[in-house]
Design goal:
The chain is built from three helices and no strands. It is mostly helical. The chain starts with 10 loop residues before the first helix and ends with a helix.
């Protein structure tokens, strides 16, 4: 692929991604109606991360870019999830610790 050529997704691809984003927004609103205890933040961040990934891959054309860019992005997201996982683990253990006292 030359430097001047770019992949242009079809209109149906954009419509499908848009419909997926609408569906995930509906999921976000539906999940917010329930109390999952200490996992509320985790579920909300998970759905938001999936939506952000769809936007980055298709609307920002990260899927069709050089391979280095998606790798750097997903490694950054992996470290974000690791740090978020440690934070969530701390919150969950504090909640369970106060409930057992």
């Amino acid at each position: 692929m030359s430097a001047d050529s770019h992949h242009h997704p079809s209109l149906s691809t954009f419509v499908n991604v848009l419909l997926a984003l609408f569906f995930l927004t509906f999921v976000t609103v539906a999940v917010a109606q329930f109390d999952f205890g200490p996992f509320n933040t985790f579920i909300a961040m998970l759905v938001a991360s999936v939506k952000a990934t769809l936007v980055l891959l298709y609307f920002m054309h990260l899927k069709y870019d050089k391979m280095e860019y998606p790798v750097v992005f997903f490694v950054g997201i992996l470290f974000l999830f690791v740090m978020f996982g440690f934070s969530q683990l701390d919150v969950v253990t504090r909640i369970f610790e106060t409930q057992t006292l």
